[in-house]
Amino acid sequence: MLVKIYELGEIEDNKLEFAAISALYMNKYVFVKHKKRETWEIPGGRREKGETICETGKRELQEETGAEEFEIEEICDYSVTIADKTTYGRLFYSNIYKLGELPDLEIGEVELFDSVPNKLTYPKIQPLLQKKAIEMCNKLKLKE
């Protein structure tokens, strides 16, 4: 598996299939657990037909965390190559100000962490994306 980071907009928009959101709430990292898994992941998911990638990021953050009030910023693009298949996504950073009820969809649990948890769904991808988001959040100067 190979994960690459690209400058924002370096990947053509029509190739961006996924949005991943590194999120903070009350100065803690937000991780979610899918109902069918025992591992943690950052919020995110697949782009739906007709959506912009920014709409995907906002929708996934709301669906997977219950976020009601938040700021969200684009960080960078990324690719994941497994065997001969490469998929592309966009990484976002979000400060969540208000969490509401978790929608009854795929996610069963939202948890706040001081650091990246050990049991990750995608351990070769998520720490790299989280690190990139942390590096960039200081430059974005989002409200905390």
List how many beta strands DSSP finds. Answer: 7
| Beginning-to-end CA distance, first to last residue | 34 Å
Q: Low-confidence segments, ≥5 residues, pLDDT <50?
A: none
CATH architecture: Alpha-Beta Complex
Question: Going by CATH, what is the homologous superfamily?
Answer: Nucleoside Triphosphate Pyrophosphohydrolase
Main β-sheet description: 7 strands, mixed
Describe the structure.
The mean pLDDT is 93. 31% of the residues are buried. The protein has one domain: Nucleoside Triphosphate Pyrophosphohydrolase (Alpha-Beta Complex), CATH 3.90.79. It is of the alpha+beta class and 144 residues long. A hairpin with a 2-residue loop joins strand 2 and strand 3. The termini are far apart. It holds the Pfam family NUDIX. InterPro entries: NUDIX_hydrolase-like_dom_sf, NUDIX_hydrolase_dom, Nudix_YtkD. It comes from Serpentinicella alkaliphila.
Features:
alpha+beta, Nucleoside Triphosphate Pyrophosphohydrolase, 144 residues, NUDIX_hydrolase_dom
